[in-house]
Amino acid sequence: MLLAQALPLDPTTLAALIAAAFLAGFVDSIAGGGGLISLPALLMAGIPPVEAVATNKLQSTFGTAMASYRYWKSGLVETKGLALNVAASALGAALGSFSLNFIDAAILQRIIPVLMIAIAMYFAFGPKASDVDSHARLTPIAFAAGIVAPIGFYDGMFGPGTGSFFALGFVTLAGFGLLKATANTKILNLASNFAGLMVMIWNAQAIFAIGLPMAIGQTLGAYAGTRTAITHGAKIIRPLIVIVSVAIAIRLLLKG
Description:
The protein has helices at 11-31, 35-44, 49-73, 82-98, 105-125, 140-157, 162-172, 178-202, 208-232, 234-255. It has one domain (11-255). The chain is built from 10 helices and no strands.
């Protein structure tokens, strides 16, 4: 069982993975998409794909937890409807993880790049992509059921761009400013990541001896990233979401 063992890695490779995790944590805490950095690093280190995905989920959950804590401590998390959103995200992710063997990911690989480009265009040119709150278009229950749960399902099943989808939903439909949307996105990311991780641990796919050292780098990167986001707000979040969304689209197109 790979849960209890580690593939042999020399100290230099492990140090490189920790450095990649730091950068991934920094980017992910602001705009999401940290897996674009940490997952390829794991694959390049020779970790088999299934175990690489699970180990990446393990270490990234620590960074998401740090980012969630920092945003919560800063008073940026909206508590109204939060429990409902967290439950919807976790349930959706768990169902998505269990559905991996029944849904053709190739279909998503063709659709998601188009959505990523659309998100990038919105945050690049949309007038509402600022730190100013606006009017909510959906009730909390409708938002949790119609937006949060499906995105959580997608995160558990596929994953790339989840943070961008959550941020877009919060800005356009919940009426949040971009910094507040980013803070609440991290809470829901944490819920979906944790639920998906539990399924992967149950299936003995995560390599703890690699994931836990990377979690240190991921946590430190998330701390630095949230500090940067809280200080600069939409000025840093907006362009980084655009960059990450385009990068995800390109990655999926090349992979396809």
